Amino acid sequence: MKTVFQNRRLIFALRLVLGIIFIIAAIAKFIDMTGFINTVAGYGILSEGLSHVYGYFVTWIELFIGCSLILGVFVRFSAIISIPLIISFIVANIYALVNAVGGSCGCFGTFLPMSHPVSLTLDVLLFLASLILIFNRSQDFLSIRQLLQKLKINSKAAIWVSRSLLVGLTLFAIEIVSIQSYQYFTLPHVTVLPGLTVIPHQSLDDTDQYLRAGKPVVVFFYADGCLACEEARPIISDMASEFVNNAGFVNIEYSQNPQAVSDLNITVTPNVLVITGKNSDGTYNVLGRFEGVINRDALQTSIKQAIKSQ
User: Which of 49, 96, 156, 210 has the most CB atoms around it within 10 Å of its CB?
Assistant: First the structure.
């Protein structure tokens, strides 16, 4: 077993896999930073201010760790700082499972919605992989250090500076790619759903109006800059056109309506709720909840069921 974990090719593969996972997670968060911070706040563990700090800190640390592991630079250091990061993920997922916090974990933003049990399993595997890298001595195989040595750069200072510059340039390049991807997929940005009559900054008061009129309500929670939200817009618009006479449609921007987000336990965007009524204690009867990638047929079926139940 010891020989297996000292296999330099296995360690190289482990570095690549971990590095790719961390970089994908970081880029997904960069593209929808608002959505990720909202997800962190939705756990209810950190205050709103600390959620912002944690959101930005985690994203940059993940990017640094990913770049370092792939380049083979500061591998042990990156593995060490990944441990408290991964532990925070594990704690958050356990908290979510114990307290029945719904929605996606937010690990990969809206790019890859992931349930808390799946995320917890992945976090444990990442934790074990990081421990292997910390105590392994075969970290330099196919690394930048090997390349620099082949180029006959032997000065310790020169090697340290070169490695630092390479990590910095890689971080910069990936950040540029993230910004360009964000602009490509979200600009020009439309905040009003086509085909809908939208009251600016709608709230649950609008939902209550539809319910008093005897209509079920489709509530669409979105966040500015959210790629998956943009993809969901045409689906919501089509549903609004199809059921315009039988159901109400309310469009709520996540950050503008914290009370609605809290009341309906919204932890990820996009989030579509099919509501059929309101109870005497102020809670809503939610017939269907759709998070992340919205399934058109499933949403359509849920709306039809809600209309029949009225």
Answer: 96
pLDDT for residue 119: 87
Q: At what angle do helices 8-31 and 156-186 cross, to 10 degrees?
A: 40
**Residue 246: which domain range?**
204-309
> Do the strands 248-253 and 217-222 form a parallel or antiparallel pair, or are they unpaired?
parallel
Q: Average pLDDT for consecutive 10-residue bins of the chain (310 residues)?
A: 60 85 85 74 78 84 85 83 91 85 71 80 90 73 58 57 61 57 41 39 74 89 79 87 87 82 84 89 86 84 87
Residue 192 lies in a domain: no
Residue 219 CA: distances (Å) to CA of 186, 207, 292: 22, 8, 14
Residues 144 and 247 in one domain: no
